[in-house]
Amino acid sequence: MCGIAGIIHRDGGAPHQVGRDLTRMLQAMKHRGPDSTGYAVYRGGGDSYVMHVKLSEPSERDANLAQRTQRQRDQVEARLRASGAQIEGVEGTPRTMTITFSLDDGDLKHLTDAVERVRHTEVLSLGRSLEIFKDVGDAETVSKQYGLGQFVGTHAIGHARMATESDVDIANAHPYWAYPFPDVAVVHNGQLTNFHDWRRRLQRMGHRFQSECDSEIIAVYLAEQMNRGRSLEDAMRQSLEDLDGVFTYICVTEDALGVAKDELGAKPLVLYEDDDLVALASEEIAIRQVLDREIETHDPYEGEVRVWTR
């Protein structure tokens, strides 16, 4: 079932309370996915990189967990420095850490791989604008845990997950970052029927995957297409030719948000658009949480791709 949502302000990059607004949108769709909630939020471009790292899962009950995660923190910082990063700040929760750093010259893939060689550690996101926060629980629970009510930025997407085939944990929560490409993430409602075919193709190109989720395939597919020179819109249009199944997905980059629906158009998405704001979600009730006036919405047609820039 699941619920997806997105919001982008089209005023040239002025900061807005996207964390608060996306929480309201996702909480309104709690009935579609109460198991876990995830956010991909964008602050706007800067010179520094931000990396979000998972250290442990909520289900872990190891008596030595605190000592283990501290060792992980120390090792992550050491590996970043060894890869040429200048660390500017470190924050986190008991299960995650967030590192802000500059990198004068270096390979982001090499840097990410070095961090993930620390046992039990996964990089959830990396970019100059992108930050991914995800955990078990509904939107209000996750937002409170990570302080997302105070997050200001330009655009964001989110996902409320109902687990059907995999565990309820951080690893299987959405959104997914398009490793190793910075600032690209996807949320998705539906199913790819040629998932395994595209996973093998992308693996042969050198990509690795953290999960068995088809949303991660979409993210990496789009980033790979853009890396070859396609625009976001062209990459999304090509995805409708290459990816089979029934799906609606939202993709975000450093300065854009796009939505695509497969040619059957069976997975719902409601869209509101004006000169300043675009908001979209699986249900209209979510959009009404952030607009205090009468609005008109519509459901994009089957096979449609739309992209907006901030």
Instruction: Give the distance, in angstroms, between the N- and C-terminal Cα atoms.
Output: 30 Å
Largest sheet: 6 strands, antiparallel
Proper CATH architecture of the largest domain: 4-Layer Sandwich
Q: What is the CATH homology-level superfamily of the largest domain?
A: Aminohydrolase, N-terminal nucleophile (Ntn) domain
**Low-pLDDT residue spans:** none
Could you give the order of the helices and strands?
EHEEHEEHEEHEEEHHHEEEEHE
Query: Number of folding domains?
Result: 2
Shape: globular
Summarize the structure.
By secondary structure, this protein is of the alpha+beta class. Helices cover 27% and strands 31% of the residues.
Can you put this structure into words, describing what you see?
The protein is α+β, with helices and mostly antiparallel strands and 310 residues long. It folds into two domains: 3-36 and 135-309, Glutamine Phosphoribosylpyrophosphate, subunit 1, domain 1 (4-Layer Sandwich); 47-127, Alpha-Beta Plaits, CATH 3.30.70.60. 27% of the residues lie in helices and 31% in strands. It contains eight helices and 15 strands. The protein has helices spanning 18-27, 65-82, 108-116, 139-146, 195-204, 214-227, 232-242, 284-287; strands at 3-9, 36-42, 49-54, 85-93, 96-103, 122-127, 130-136, 155-161, 176-177, 185-192, 245-252, 256-261, 270-273, 277-281, 305-309. β4 and β5 (96-103) form a beta hairpin. α5 packs across α6 (214-227). The chain is globular, with a radius of gyration of 18 Å.
